[in-house]
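Entry 12.
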Amino acid sequence: MSRLDRILPQSLVARVYSLYSATLLLFVGSSLVLFYQFQYNETVEKVQRSATMLVEVAAQTISDSAIIGDYDTIQRTLQRAISGSQFSSASFIDLDGGVITVSSPPDEAKAPDWLLEAIRADLYDVNRTISAGGKDYGVLRLVFSAEEIAYGLWQLIYTVLDFALLCLIGGMLAIWFPIRRWLGTLSRVHVFEQDFRNEGKIAESAQLIKDVPSEFRPAFEVLQRTTVSLQKELDSREQALTALRATVSSLLPEGCTEETEGASEDIAALSDVIAKLVREREARRLELELAKTAAEEANRTKSEFLANMSHEIRTPMNGVIGMAELVLDTQLDAEQRDWVETIQSSAHHLLGIINDILDFSKIEAGKMSIEEIPFNIRDTLNEVMTSFGLRAKEKHLDLFCNVQDNVSALIRSDPIRLKQILFNLVGNALKFTPQGSISLAATAESDSSGIQLLHVVVKDTGIGMSPSQVKRIFDAFSQADGSITRKYGGTGLGLTITRRLVELMGGTIWVESTEGCGSEFHFTLKIA
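Predicted 3D structure (tokens):
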């Protein structure tokens, strides 16, 4: 609790009253300070202005008397000048050193020392040279009565202080009773508790809400609605509990449903049943969690095994391919060359299968990395189509490559993985297209968020697919049907790897196909 909280009263009425009193006191005090400053300055200026006027009037008479040496007239003039004025003394000092001084009797009234010192510091003696015809005759000096001036100002301040104190007390008393009446209503919140115990009757609380200030009325209305809502909720829960007891009674052992059993014993039996169900469910959850962990470990082990085996098999396979190429460079007859070429083709096919398995295991293990480097997309697409030129010519197929003008020459992505995707899609198109053509098209698009995308379409005039085949075409180890595997070969991993690569590169892939009319494979990639 902070120091302010310890100082403030606990009652809201007392806090509001204290805040009002402090504000009123601050206002009255500030007004008094401002009044004192203004009145003090006004009094000093007024006294100095009157002194200037008085000394000029007296100087005229004294000048005439000083010329003829009439000192009695000078003394009477000085006496009249300070009579009834705010000067304590008046003096005429001639050039020969003679002094005529007239003083007023001292004032017995006493002002505070601090005010008297302030008046003395701001008022100074008034001196006026008496001269006539260019000749000086002496000096007229008037001395202010600081006691009289300070006392007059203090009387005014004292009167204002009395009036301000009276107003402060009157204002505090005038606000106390309304605040106590208006905010005292808040202390009667216990009426809501009584209404709640009386089954939601709101007669007294409704009248209470009318009496509270409008600022607090919404809070009391919410409190009243909450009271009614809680009562209804309790009634609803009681009904639900009764129905639950009736339902659970059929699930409990016969000994728990005897009439001698109380309602508390029903609840205890219900708690036991629920606890038993929770224990069985928790045991089942633990079994499933252990099975899930075992399955994940088996899957990881499988991926590692596939990766290791693929590496181990690919090394000797590269040796077989290399040795076949060396043998083809030697002198062979036609039959021997055919045998070696068969070995070389089978080795290349087996190496492709191994590479697919290795890529699939890397993706499954989450170890496939994607780069983002700038490269020329047109050169990449032309390179892919050129590599399939010989196979297309052997099957008498036409190849087309069309890159729209809105595609930038340089894009940022992974050129190696993009080539792998295109090799899979174009290779499949060549495999399943007996006649016609294959086209590769690319255009630039933007999604709803303004991100630049590369949209690539691989279209063929091949055998096509049925809707059921389209649904599972991207599943692992899946092809359109078993006859395709026997006729065209393959592991069914190519399109699965393609889909995973497209997703890793931030894109999507889909297919549109009609059985007997060819297929269109679409995919998009983010291009930074």
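Annotation: The two ends are 57 Å apart (CA to CA). The first strand starts at residue 87 and ends at 94.
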